[in-house]
Structures are given as structure tokens and as C-alpha cells.
Amino acid sequence: MSIHSVRSHALFVVATFAVCLASASFAPAQVGLTQLSEDTFTNNSSQHMTEVEPGAFTWGSTIVTAFQVGRIFSGGGADIGFATSTNGGQTWTNGYLPGITIFQGNGTYQAASDAAVAYDALHGVWLISTLPIGNGTAVAVSRSTDGINWSNPFFVTKAGGPDKNWIVCDNTPTSSFYGHCYSEWDSTNSGDLIQMSTSTDGGITWSPAVTTQGQDFGIGGLPLVKPNGKVIVPILGFGGFVMAFSSTNGGQTWTKAVNVGAFINHYEAGDIRSAGLPSAAADAKGKVYVAWPDCRFRTGCSSNDIVFSKSGNGTTWSVVKRVPIDPVTSTVDHFITGMAIEPGTLGTTAHVGLVYYYYPVSNCGNNCSLFAGFIQSSSGGAKWSPAQTLGGPMSLTWLPDTFSGRMVADYIAVGFGGGKAFPIFALAQAPTGSLFHQAIYTTAAGLGPEAPELEVLSSAADRPVPNAKSDHVMRVFVDNEIPAGGPPESE
Predict the structure, then answer these.
(1) Fewest CB within a 10 Å sphere: which of 86, 99, 152, 410?
(2) In degrees to the nearest 10, what's the CA dihedral of 294, 317, 282, 254?
(3) Is 293 exposed, middle or buried (0-12, 13-18, 19+ CB in 10 A)?
């Protein structure tokens, strides 16, 4: 496993990533960025110098993010990369996970996808959940005691054509299930049947897969744990709703899913890969927030806002509200999001960070300009600081292509250090010949919220458009295909 250090003062703030005034609601500002990693693979199956789709988790002063490296058209990347900061985002160390793919550490799979990160406090171990594909499909877990040196994978399942895995651990010492870790995925061989598995030994061994009591179907589940040990799993269902299900017995059984809110979604222009997957986080008291792209506040479903709902028990959910990034009369289209809450914050002082991509003009045809943005609230989503543009404009031709469109991510992430947010996302510059220039970035310094009296953006008066509905049918979406090509290659 090759490991490299990145110092945050080495900024990658070239003209391409100068912050632009994309709409009237975005204040012009400069945000310094740090590139966290780089694709150094040379395999023929990948589109090189590409990195996409970061997941992340924060524990103490450590932030770990993991992502695909060397995106392959038909699914996954050449390997999963990681970047770790042990000092709250000041400096970073990066590398690749060993033993998963044939391109790194004698793995047996042709690609890897869907990286998600967790920490198990009882066992003192970091976990990165991955989806090895090609030569079968599996859900796997790589382990590390320091977030830098990683084991070969341990397997959660190799059955059922798994997709869109996620992972979380119970880190509350007073919980009856302290040290339980939970993995979620859907079985594409069974029509995206939701599956759950539990580990009690730090991710080494995993229980047989368990379905929900409703035999529910969905994709993109995000397990979260309350301090009392209850696990709540928001997920995108296929019946036009974001849903959630739960367990109160350490993962032995899982309830039938309930509806969180309707999924009313605008179809992004420009052939960008945008699945509309939810993002979710829990505050220190266990209140769960779920966010997703939704057009219910826009006339004619002309573009998406990021909307959210909250629940303390996973059964009863608040009325869906929009994040007031810009006015509902704007042309801006928001999609592909990542949300996190600063550890230790809760209730009306929960510090929520939300990173997302957007088009300044939704109806952009085949000439779309892609930006990354960030917004945060220190009042549990009651009011928000002004949004910040992190990067762009990017042409979609600068992004690697996939079977479902040009790709930056299906999800992105936010870490926290020193009370400030570190949005983690993919940005691209213009290619050089056949080589792309896309990598994972974060901000060089953490982004702190405005003082409460300066958090003035609110959507309290906004109301959905009557009879709002999506402007497209729900898209079929998987990422566990076997990469196209001949026999497995070696580097």
C-alpha cells in the first residue's frame, strides 16, 4: 500500500477553481482548496486521472474519506483510495486500499465501488465498506487502527448481486449494543431487496443477511445509530418515496419501512449521472436528518432544491423543508449532496454542513456548467448561513463517462475538525489528451458557520407547488456491473 502525505498549505487554487458568482444568492468569495489524492494507476480498463464519489466519517480529530480511483465506464474504479487527517483537517495522508482489486495488493476483483467510512470505538478500528465487482460482486470491509494502514478486505457478503453498501457503528458506551456495526446494501438479483448484516467483532465477521419485516426494496440506505442503540436507516424507495426502517435489538430484526417524504425530482440536463440518492446524518441526541434533491418548490418541476426532513424516532418525520440556498424563482438546479452534523452538537444548536453540486441554469441542454457548493446551519436547519461556491465552472466533458452519464459522484461528504466543516468532493479541470484531471478535494481551512445573528436564510415561508410531481420516471440505477473487456488484466 503506497502512502503519501499532503499538507493543507499546499493549495490547489488555480483559475479553474476560483469561486464564481453563479447566481444572485451566492456571495463572491475565494475558498482555498487542498487536493487529497491522485489517480496513479495505468490499467487499460480505467479512464485515468479520475477520482469520484467520496464518503467520509469524523471521530475525534480524525477525518477519513474514501473514494473510487480510476473510474471504469461500466462500474467502479481501479481501486478505492483514502485520505486521512489526524489533526482536524490541517494535513492529510493518502493511499490505496490493498487486496481488493487486481491492480493493488494482489486482489482478485476487477474494480471496486461505493466507499463508505465508519469508526468502531469499542474495538478502536476504522472501517471502509466497499463493493468489489468483476469476478463476482461482494460487500467488503477494510480495517485500520490508525486510518492510514489498512488490512486486506473482510467480506460481509458475496451473494445476491449486492449494490450501494453503507456502514455505521454504535459508539455510545451506555448503549446495549455498543460495538455493534451495521452494514446495509440492496440485492440486485432480488429486485433491490434491502439487506442488513451485523458485526460484533470490529468488522471481522458478519451475520447472515436479514431483510426488513416488510420485505422492502430500495437503494442507497444510510444506517445511523441513536445513543440508546436504536438504528435508523433512511433509504430511497422505488414507490416514489424516501423511506426509513429501524432496529431496536442490535440488528436481529428490522421493521417494515415507513415513508419519510415523497421523492419529487427534476431530471438533470447534460447527461450527468445523478441518481437523487438521499444523504443523512444524526445529531448528538440521535435526531436523524435526511436530505435529497427535490423539485416540489419549483413551478413545473423546473429544477431541484435540496430538501430535508427530521425525526427523533425514525417513524414520525417532520414536514419536508427546502434548504434556502437561493430563491425558488432562480434558475439554479441543485443535486448530488452530502450532509454531516458536527459531532457533539444537537437540537437547536446542531451544526449541519451540506455540500452539493449545481447548475446555475437548469435548462442548459448540452452546454451545462457544473459547480460545487456548500451551505451550513448552526441552528439545526432553522436558519442557514449564505451559501459558498467551492469550485467550478466545470464542463461535463471533463468528467469520466459511465453507462449512466458523466460522473462526479452518486454522493459526496463532509468532515469536521475544530468546530469547522470540511466539505469533500470531486472537481475537474480540462483533460490533457486522453488523461482527465479530476481528483478529490477539500477546503484548505475548515468552514465555520456565521454567528447565529448572521444566519439569516430561512425557508419557513416557502410552500410546495400544489400537485407537484417529478418530470421523469424513476431511473434504473446500479453500479455493480462486471467491467467490460476481456480477461482480467494486471498492471
Answers:
(1) 152
(2) -110
(3) buried
- Burial of residue 479 (CB within 10 Å: 0-12, 13-18, 19+) is buried
Supply φ then ψ for residue 243, to 5 degrees. -125, 175
Burial of 372 from C-beta contacts in 10 A (0-12 / 13-18 / 19+): buried
Name the pairing type of β-strands 305-311 and 321-322.
antiparallel
* The C-alpha cell that represents 171 in the structure block: 459508539
The span from the first CA to the last CA of the chain, in angstroms, equals: 15
The H or E element that residue 279 is part of is strand 279-282
Buried-state track 128-151, b at ≥16 Cβ within 10 A, e below 16 = bbbbbbbbebbbbbbbbeebbebb
Grid cell digits, residue 220? 442507497
For residue 313, the tally of other CB atoms under 10 A from its CB is: 14
Q: Please choose, from the candidates 287, 288, 292, 297, the residue with its C-alpha nearest in 3D space to the C-alpha of residue 274.
A: 292
SS3 state of residue 213: coil
**Residues 13-24, mean pLDDT to the nearest whole number:** 32
**Residue 64 bridge partners (DSSP):** 57, 84
**For all residues of the chain together, what is the average pLDDT?**
92
Residues in a beta bridge with 56: 65
List b or e across 448-463, with b for residues whose CB sees 16 or more CB atoms inside 10 angstroms: ebbeeeebebebeeee
Cell for 490?
A: 494486471
- Count Cβ atoms below 10 Å from residue 441 Cβ, excluding itself: 24
Alpha-carbon distances, residue 302 vs 268, 277, 295, 445 (angstroms): 10, 19, 7, 35
Average pLDDT over residues 369-387: 97
User: For residues 153, 155, 156 and 161, what is the CA-based torsion angle, rounded to 10 degrees?
Assistant: 110
Q: Is the per-residue pLDDT at 27 higher than 70?
A: no
d(CA 99, CA 78): 12
- Rounded distance, CA 339 to CA 198, Å? 24
Cα–Cα distance measured from residue 21 to residue 408, given in angstroms and rounded to the nearest whole number = 21
**Binning pLDDT at 50, 70 and 90, where does residue 481 land?**
low
Is residue 238 exposed (0-12), middle (13-18) or buried (19+ Cβ within 10 Å)? middle
